Structure formats: C-alpha cells, structure tokens
Amino acid sequence: MSESTAIPARLREIIEEFQAGDRGEKLELMLDYADRLPVLPERLRDRAGMEQVHECMSPVFLHSELEDGGVVFHFDVPEEAPTTRGYASILAEGLRGVSPREVLAVPGDFFQEMGLHQILSPQRLNGISAILAYMKRQALQLMQ
Fold first, then answer.
1. How much is the CA Rg of the chain, to the nearest whole Å?
2. What's the pTM?
C-alpha cells in the first residue's frame, strides 16, 4: 500500500489544503482548525476514561470509541495551545469514522506532507507525532 493510499480521503483533503498554502497561510489554517476542535461530550469532561499524551508539552487527553464501525476521537487540549489543538482537530476530523485498521495505516510522519515542519518546532513535531501514536494504540485496542 503506498503512503497516499494509506491516508483516508478526508485527511488527504486536509493535507492538500495545507500544501496549497505558504508558511503564513499554514499557520492561519492551523489556528482555524484549533477553533474547530469539537467540545468534549459531557461524559468526558472530568477526563475519566481519557488517556494523557505525556510527550506533549501541553496537557493533551484523548479518548476513542467505535461508532457505527468507525472510530471517533475526542480530545481535550487547552485553548492556550493553539497549534496542538489545531493538530488534534485535524486528526479528529480527518480520521472520523474510519476503521481502526485505517487509523493504523496512517504514516506517522504524514504531517511532513503538510509542511508543518515550516511552522512548528522540532519539540512540537515530536509531541504531535506522539498524538498519532496514542491514537493508533487506542485504535488497536478497539479492534480487540
């Protein structure tokens, strides 16, 4: 399977949005996605059942569940961490409803195609890589 076919359609569209922009536009797009991060369902507001992504500089919490056979990811990321919120929102939207197997197939460095290395520090890139790794681990647990 080639890298482009391992990326679900909606995530591919998001990648293409970022590819079309220059450095400033990428940052604006990231902030736009940060504003679009869905609000946590009431049952997760106390973070019970959520896993913390410890590699992130900001407190990032993640919960996944199956809905009609597809994965839905819920994130709790503080508003004071807009780039991390943006990336979490991109992943939540880009992978919403895909199968756990499709989540596992997403290349860990797909964000390079988006040009995020132009707007994020290496430390932030490590954190966002960890977010996807946690998502993959949770997807694997949902398969079992």
1. 14
2. 0.93
Strand partners, 71: 66
- For 46-70, write each residue's pLDDT tens digit: 999 999 999 999 999 999 999 999 9
- The count of C-alpha atoms lying within 13 angstroms of the C-alpha of 7, restricted to the half-sphere facing its C-beta, is 22
Q: Tokens 């946590």 belong to which residue?
A: 40
DSSP code of residue 37: P
The residue written with tokens 């390079």 in the block is 112
CA angle in degrees (0–180, nearest 5) for 50-55-57:
95
Alpha carbon separation from 89 to 68, 78, 126, 143, 144 (Å, rounded): 21, 12, 17, 23, 26
Sorted by where each starts, the structural domains of the chain and their CATH numbers stand as: 4-39+50-143 (3.90.1010.10)
Following CA atoms 136, 68, 88, 142 in sequence, which dihedral angle do they give, to the nearest 10 degrees? -20
Alpha helices in 1-144 (DSSP H): 9-19, 23-35, 82-94, 100-105, 111-114, 122-143
pLDDT of residue 1: 41
Q: What residues have CB less than 8 Å from 42, skipping those under 6 apart?
A: none
